[in-house]
Amino acid sequence: MQDVEKTEIQRHNNARRIRRRNRMRPLYGLVVAVLVVFVGVALSRTVFFNIQTIVVDGSASQYSKDDIAHASGVHTGDNLMRVDADEVKQNVLSECYFVESVTVKKEFPDELVITVTPSEPAYNVVDDSGTLQVDVSGKILKNSPETDASLPTITGFEAEVREPGQMLASKDSQKDAIFQALTELTAKGLDCPITAIDLTDKYDIALTFDNRVEFSLGNWSDLEYKVTLAETVLTKLSSDKIGYLSMVGDHQCSYRDKEAVEQQTTAPMTTLATDENGDPVVETDENGDPISTTTETTTAENDWQ
């Protein structure tokens, strides 16, 4: 009887241990999986995926591929998993100001690809100190005494900084906003290109289209509407017309032909000297002939709609 009881107790205990092991099996599996992942990550960040090749795609004529690779701050032998793509991008942009944009891609197991897009000069910003060439974002690319005749010229901006690599900034913050609004507008594409921008008076901004028609638009409120209105007028003019456009009220543009303005006549104005009583005094020359004093004045055309 005792042997039978011991056997039954042992069977009961064995069954209990089996059930316990079955319940713990998922936990064991999870622990093993975590350990495997941990070891894999540790190895991938230390032993595996070390950079063998840094590839530079795209071009910026001012820099060699080695220059860009060096500016990235990444070296062969660095671990690809530990490379921060955003940091690489900022390193290149801060060192290479003739680069407009950077993308960074990890090609596993051992290659880093850096693709650059060059900055292109978009405007001359001219003042008494020289010319700043800037890209569409306003980044200063060059400080030079000479202008690039192929680029639109901005005057009256009052540049506060002049160092290449810095962002263009005016002493008048409102002119910064005007510059940004104009660059965003021109980036959309215009039927007639803007070749000059005069910001000397921010309340009377002047744009020159195609080096031949000057548009006085007033302040920069409703800028896009005003430029669109001016383009509408320009499309109705022959391509050889040279002259002046101006806003008339809020919803009209008026055009004057340059030749017509230049042909405005001048008329002599006679002035006579008087004595203390207001009576004319006739001056005479050495022969006793009367002399009249004349001055010239230009007749201004005020209403040229």
Describe this structure in words.
The protein has 305 residues and is an alpha/beta fold. The protein folds into three domains: 1-43; 53-118, Ubiquitin-like (UB roll) (Roll), CATH 3.10.20.310; 123-261, Rossmann fold (3-Layer(aba) Sandwich), CATH 3.40.50. Helix content is 31%, strand content 28%. It has helices at 2-44, 65-72, 85-95, 173-187, 223-235, 258-262; strands at 53-58, 99-107, 111-118, 123-127, 130-134, 140-144, 153-155, 194-198, 205-209, 213-218, 243-248, 252-257, 266-271, 283-284, 290-291, 293-298. The strands form four sheets. The protein has a nine-stranded mixed beta sheet with strand order 6-5-4-7-8-9-10-11-12. Strands 1-3-2 form a three-stranded mixed beta sheet, covered by helices on one side. Helix 2 (65-72) crosses helix 3. The longest helix has 43 residues, at 2-44. It is elongated. The N and C termini lie far apart (127 Å). The model is unreliable at 265-281 and 292-305 (pLDDT under 50).
Give a topology summary.
Layout: H1 2-44, E1 53-58, H2 65-72, H3 85-95, E2 99-107, E3 111-118, E4 123-127, E5 130-134, E6 140-144, E7 153-155, H4 173-187, E8 194-198, E9 205-209, E10 213-218, H5 223-235, E11 243-248, E12 252-257, H6 258-262, E13 266-271, E14 283-284, E15 290-291, E16 293-298
Parallel strand pairs: 1-3, 4-7, 7-8, 10-11
Antiparallel strand pairs: 2-3, 4-5, 5-6, 8-9, 9-10, 11-12, 13-16, 14-15
